[in-house]
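INPUT
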Amino acid sequence: MINNIFKEQDFIKDFPALSKMIDGTKVTYLDNAATTLKPVSMVNAVNEYYLGISTNVHRGKSYSLEEVSNRYEQCRYAVAELLSCSGNEVVFTRNTTEGVNLVANGLEFDEGDKILVSSDSHHSNFLPWMRQAQLLTVRTRNDGSLDLDHYYELLQLNPKLVAINHCSNVTGVYQPIEPMLRAAKEVGAITFVDAAQSIPHRRVNVTQLEVDFLTFSAHKMLGPTGIGILFGRQAMLNNLQPLNLGGGMVNWVEKDSYDLRKIPHRHEAGTPHIAGAYGLSAAIEYIQNLGLEAMESHDKSMGQHMLDLALERDYLRVINSAPNLDRGAVLSFQIPGLSELDDIARILSDSYGIICRNGHLCAQPYVDEHSEGQVLRISAYVYNSEKDVSRFFSCLDELQGVMF
Amino acid sequence: MNMESPVLDKFLEEVEYAYQNVPFYRKALDKLGVITGELCQDSYQQKLPLTDKRDYRKNFPIGVLAKGFSLNHPMLNKSQSSGTTGERLVTFEIGMNLLQRAITCTQVNPYIQDVFTQPNRKICRYAAPNCSDVECASPHSTLQDRLLADGTLVLPVYHDLLTTSPQLVDRAIDEIEQYKPDLFYVDPTHFAFLLREYKKRGLTPPRIPVITSYSAATEVSKRQILEFYPKTHFAEFLSSSEMGWIAMQCPSGRLHLNEESFFFELLDRNYEPAMAGDLAQLCISSIDQGALPHLRYQTGDMVTQLHGNCECGSKNRSIVIEGRESNFIQLGDGIQHSPLSIDRLIGAPDWLDLYQLEQIEHEKFILKMIVNKKYQAESENAVISNLKGLLGKSVDIRLEVVDYIASERSGKFQAVKGMKIDK
Ligand SMILES: Cc1ncc(COP(=O)(O)O)c(C=O)c1O
Ligand SMILES: [Zn+2]
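OUTPUT
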């Protein structure tokens, strides 16, 4: 047994990485918000493609090509099922970042158009918009929480697009996207959700949300790197200019014109990450077997446990410790007096086998505002238990005596 | 077994014809030491091998084409199954033979036969496109592109049926209006989808006979078709790309085998002749000495023969189609339930438009439902208790009310999906 919620699951068997050692110490992996570990079944699925007759997809008539295309398309259906959308609303991308860029570059923005973003966004859900139009940025309060009143105020300025960060990769706090999206639609905005940190933990039903686009990465949910998903409503995907042109996305080409293939294929130019789709299918299957409801309770209880332990320690300051927020298993804090945490992170890993993250976490404007320098972040996933988190804090306690 | 000897004679002649003209059979029978001239009613089942799709795919064309035919022979028609990989198959047959098979098949349903055999009658087909997902149903194909030589207009639809765009539905509806067909030749799930789209637009489809094939008509699809069409206008039939028309429903509602054009065997799990009422695989042999003879071809379709004679007067055996073996529900104790038996339990409640029951594990199912305005919370309780009555009280059936259910990659829609068994 590794944790209370997934009593039956043999994570040690499923995740070889959990048995890896760093200088004789077993690894405690707490950097899941960056990317999760990978289960054997996922890697086997990837291998199945590469070690099989590894043809391309949708380009010809051979038997194996059909088989490969089937597996590739079945992954699309599995994603559609996960999100409760339709198969042609699922575009394969490289990652979350590409999903944002496809939309930012594929929509037409005119002089004077405004885009509403949050100041706690990941750079991926920030920079692509910055280049396209004037940004309206939702403030955060002093405690680090998003100022939702300000969000609703800014909506009155009629942004063309609203880009919401569903769950912060710094604080693990989830935003109430349902009313936020509804309000954005009421002012006629196109709605976009960065779900990189939420889809891995919770069921998100896009039919029940007023969301036009939503994006996430496979590698943060047990899948391979190099493949991600952009969900877009049919009408939206049809109106989006394809970012990349080339093979696989046209019906017919003449010397001076071409005719785009139906969605979603028009947004997938070039040979895609086929093995990645095999792997993503296996990852989704793994997640479905664990059960998204159980994953959500795990996410919440781990998040609470992290916060509880952090608040007991006065040598650190949690970024956004506001009570009564919906939070998941991600927590960042600063250590007052230490603006540089490279050494701590190095010692945690080399001497204790604990892998976590330090820095500005690709959300520099937010981290700069709420911390005097770098932060340390821990983030858990299904195979982590409360013990892992407790161990992290007791190691930190040890270091406190000698380092700060 | 109810076997009339003229059919048996024709079958034995077909064996001789195949042996003389088709390399695949000559090799196979020589290898087994079969002497065709000595075959008779009592011995053919022991001596002659059964064949399946793989044989015809692997040996196509040189091995399976009869002497004297080539693929560009002017009398040949090409048909291609909508399946992919393990299911896919290309078949060629003499156009006249296929037509003759269709005509004898409709004999049990004079109303359909009249329409079908009218000179210059026009047919609209609405079913899974038989090409890969990406290339087909390009919204830019014209009506002319999809018009077949026999007067059939293939209507445009996407591979993944429920993703068919409103524009493409509009186009199908416009084309029907323009083409003025005499007969709909459709997949029942696809057609029920189209009828829902007609309804949404406040339109009505033309009042012409509807024959459904490709996949079994579920009770909910039938209910939606019968909302627009009187019973006399609607008949299910069984056809396949390799054989053509195999069986048709008579006005009394029974599905009669086309015993004028084929030699049928209903075989149980041990490949012995099955009794009426028992689960059997439908095996078919051609008897018209065509370009691509089939002997003892295992269709993979599981059927049961109905008892007794039909009131319509046809002497041909009648069957019900239980579903493909790979789609049977597998319970832990080795008991299987056919897609048909599940569909009967689900029935045709007026709030349900489309469903899919998928078995995940022996005791674990997901029931997805696309519902209409008549649906209220807990409408499904009766359905669930019916299912639990059959599958066991303790099974876990996860319910999901959804807007979308993916089609199979073949483009067909599978309402009941049994658990995949690892081979
Ligand atoms: C909230 C959020 N958005 C976007 C990203 C970028 O994801 P990727 O690097 O897979 O494109 C991340 C990953 O760190 C993230 O946490
Ligand atoms: Zn009858």
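end of record. Residues 132-137 of chain B have pLDDT under 50 and may be disordered.
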